[in-house]
Amino acid sequence: MIELLGSQTSSLLGQPESGMGYQTVEVEIPSGVRRATVFNADLLVWEEEPRAHLAASVHERFAGTAGKAEVRMIRSIRVVPREPDVRSAP
User: Fold this and answer.
1) pLDDT per position as a tens digit, 34-80
2) How far is CA 45 from CA 20, 41, 42, 85, 87, in A?
3) Strand 2-3 and strand 43-46: pairing?
4) Is the pLDDT of residue 86 over 70?
5) Is 38 helix (H, G, I), strand (E, B) or coil?
6) Closest alpha carbon to 22 in 77, 84, 79, 86
7) 64 exposure class (CB count in 10 Å sphere: 0-12, 13-18, 19+)
8) The pTM is what?
9) What phi, psi does 39 have (nearest 5°)?
10) How far apart are CA 36 and CA 79, in angstroms?
């Protein structure tokens, strides 16, 4: 879990949401590209991290200390385009 920098948050605010309050992203770091979910454009959770601990109180507790060293390794964050909503015609 990583609290993003202001510039990273600003960049995400200009990109579409994947759903209400979150964005599915690809994050470029020195070792390659990893998938993650960013909640409210400021809290990045890696794809393999459990989501059960993301209650509001937990978010507040981790927000000030989450991933300070890791955030500096992020080279870019790109929102993954949503798949088109394919529904059968009536």
Assistant:
1) 999 999 999 999 998 877 666 654 555 555 555 566 777 888 888 99
2) 16, 11, 10, 25, 30
3) antiparallel
4) no
5) strand
6) 79
7) exposed
8) 0.72
9) -100, 130
10) 10
